[in-house]
């Protein structure tokens, strides 16, 4: 018989052998796919010096750096405003006043259901807003509404007894949220928050559709001015690792914050001294001395 846990049965010798075979087959399939992609790249001459020499020009490097800076600027604005909007909408959804709660719910559901590209185009074309504010506004409305649900779910995930104990101590709702619920919910919300910020970072690439000169727009401009076949492939091979690196940096930052929280003295367990005989209440009978 195999051992078991509360969640699943621990596989026995046959199960472990089967899982090992599955892992080997999956690894070989991935390696075969990567080999096939590399073969196609070499077969079409994507690694020749002719296709990579243009990236040594100072003008192309400055164009890429400028596009990267514009991408980071749009992301910084969108990230901060999305967090603020998400917190505001989450507060409204947790409100005890029905009109505020209904209005916040309507806004959250509407902006979550609306495609982000449609919102960006509407703000840019119909409202005649400049490319950067239009991009930031569209990203803020969408990601802020998603983060509002993340915040609300995180606060509601805290044990109900924590809320009741805080109210029993005479704390107001603002104090309960600020000092009891939100600090405990942050640890549970952090992975979802970072995941949504990664989505916001990747969605900044939609700015090239409204002529915002971000990173992808710079790559497209470079590729359109190269005079050899399939110019987009080398450009994508330059841009993609940078996007992946920025997303991995965000994930690393989230893990670092989580570790800092675990080491924070305010969140660590506190040793409680063992109970000792204390002073009895007035009028209470005195306990007899034990031999």
Short description:
The protein has 291 residues and is mostly helical. The chain has ten helices and no strands.
Structure description:
The longest helix is centred in the first third of the chain and has 36 residues, at 58-93. The chain starts with 12 loop residues before the first helix and ends in a 28-residue tail after the last helix. It has 291 residues and is an all-alpha fold. It has 10 helices and no strands. Helix 3 (58-93) packs across helix 6, helix 5 packs antiparallel against helix 6 and helix 8 runs antiparallel to helix 10. The mean pLDDT is 83. Helices cover 71% and strands 0% of the residues. It is globular.
Question: What's the arrangement of secondary structure elements?
Answer:
Blueprint: H1 13-43, H2 49-52, H3 58-93, H4 98-113, H5 116-126, H6 131-156, H7 160-168, H8 173-203, H9 215-224, H10 232-263
What structural class should be given to the helix and strand makeup?
A: mainly alpha
What about the largest sheet? Answer: none
Rg calc: 28 Å
**Termini separation (Å)?**
55 Å
The whole-number mean of residue pLDDT values reads 83
- The helix content is over 70%
Report the total helices. 10
Query: Ranges with pLDDT <50 over ≥5 residues?
Result: none
Beta percentage is: under 5%
Number of strands: 0
As an assembly, this protein is: single chain
């Amino acid at each position: 018989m195999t051992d078991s846990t509360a969640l699943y049965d621990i596989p026995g010798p046959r199960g472990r052998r089967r899982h090992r075979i599955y892992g080997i087959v999956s690894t070989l399939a991935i390696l075969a796919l990567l080999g096939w992609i590399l073969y196609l790249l070499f077969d079409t001459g994507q690694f020749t010096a002719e296709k990579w020499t243009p990236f040594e020009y100072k003008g192309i490097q400055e164009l890429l750096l400028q596009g990267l800076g514009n991408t980071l600027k749009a992301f910084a604005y969108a990230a901060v405003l999305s967090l603020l909007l998400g917190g505001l909408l989450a507060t409204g959804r947790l409100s005890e006043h029905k009109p505020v709660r209904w209005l916040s719910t309507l806004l959250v559901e509407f902006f979550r259901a609306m495609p982000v590209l449609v919102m960006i185009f509407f703000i840019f074309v119909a409202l005649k807003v400049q490319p950067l504010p239009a991009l930031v506004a569209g990203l803020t409305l969408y990601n802020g509404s998603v983060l509002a649900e993340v915040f609300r779910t995180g606060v509601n995930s805290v044990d109900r007894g924590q809320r009741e104990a805080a109210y029993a101590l005479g704390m107001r709702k603002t104090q309960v949220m600020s000092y009891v619920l939100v600090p405990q919910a942050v640890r549970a919300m952090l992975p979802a928050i970072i995941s949504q910020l990664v989505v916001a970072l990747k969605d900044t690439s939609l700015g090239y559709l409204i002529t915002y000169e971000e990173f992808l727009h710079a790559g497209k401009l470079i590729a359109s001015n190269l005079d050899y076949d399939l110019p987009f492939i080398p450009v994508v091979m330059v841009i993609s690792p940078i996007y992946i690196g920025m997303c991995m940096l965000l994930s690393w930052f989230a893990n670092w914050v989580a570790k800092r929280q675990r080491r924070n003295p305010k969140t660590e367990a506190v040793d409680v001294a063992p109970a000792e005989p204390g002073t009895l209440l007035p009028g209470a009978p005195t306990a007899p001395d034990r031999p």
